[in-house]
Write a structure and sequence with these properties.
It is a single chain. This protein is an alpha/beta fold. 31% of the residues lie in helices and 20% in strands. It has a single domain, classed as Alpha-Beta Complex (DHBP synthase). The strands form 3 sheets. Strands 6, 7, 8, 9, 10, 13 and 14 form a 7-stranded mixed sheet that branches. A 5-stranded mixed sheet has the order 3-12-4-5-11, with helices on one face. A two-stranded antiparallel sheet has the order 1-2. The N terminus is likely disordered.
Length: 231
């Protein structure tokens, strides 16, 4: 359309800002508004890089098959490898897993802390999350930011490390973003993770619990707790 010698141009929509939103946050006193924004992103199906005491994690709504599928695609993770989840209490863990006396004992002794317990998943847990194995890895991070994030989401979030499959687990947000690029929505930055190594993983789905990955909590410490149960 023209008016005199002037011509009105209809411009295309502005391009979407694809930059990851990095939010700095205090590890021991996380601001509610920052946590709220990250939690809202997860509830809406987005992905959030968040800190734990071990390494940075990649958080998505653990109850959303679509969100979990994003994790598999972003990490380049094979569909046969399950995605663990993070909860903030024993009660929340009971909602997603059938906890044996061994699992309950380990929860009460070591969690929150750098331990992941593999238990039998309840029917309400997505088969995409468990990779069809019927088991789910559960973690309670010993980090106020992670625990508040789970609280504000109102349910479990994914607890896989914020890295590409087969690459080193990131200790800083910078390291995470170098691997995941612009494919996440929000990153919560508290600086370097305290422990710097992934959590110990123990499978308690059989009569003889098995340590699947060594970490900050030793096999000897685990067996000492389980030994008291006379399994």
């Amino acid at each position: 359309m023209t008016t005199g010698s002037s011509q009105v141009q209809i411009l295309p929509p502005a391009p979407r800002d694809e930059m990851v939103k990095i939010l700095e946050i205090r590890p021991n006193a996380p601001r509610a508004d920052v946590i709220t924004e990250a939690a809202s992103t997860i509830r809406a199906g987005g992905l959030v890089i968040y800190p734990t005491e071990t390494v940075y994690g990649l958080g998505a709504n653990a109850r959303s098959a679509k969100a979990v599928d994003k994790i598999f695609k972003l990490k380049g993770r094979g569909g046969g490898k399950p995605i663990p989840i993070a909860v903030n209490s024993l009660n929340m863990a009971r909602q997603v897993a059938e906890l044996t006396p061994a699992a309950e004992a380990l929860f009460k002794k070591f969690l929150p802390g750098p331990l992941m317990i593999v238990a039998k998943a309840r029917p309400n847990v997505s088969k995409i999350l468990t990779a069809g194995a019927g088991k789910v890895g559960i973690r309670v991070p010993n980090h106020q930011v992670a625990l508040k994030l789970i609280e504000f989401v109102g349910g479990p979030i994914t607890a896989t490390s914020a890295n590409l499959s087969g690459k080193p687990a990131p200790l800083t947000v910078k390291e995470a973003l170098e691997q995941l690029g612009k494919n996440v929505d929000v990153a919560l930055d508290v600086g370097k993770c305290e422990l710097g190594v992934p959590s110990t993983v123990v499978d308690i789905t059989s009569k003889r619990p098995k340590v699947l990955r060594r970490g900050p909590i030793s096999e000897e410490e685990i067996r000492k707790v389980l030994g008291k149960l006379k399994l």
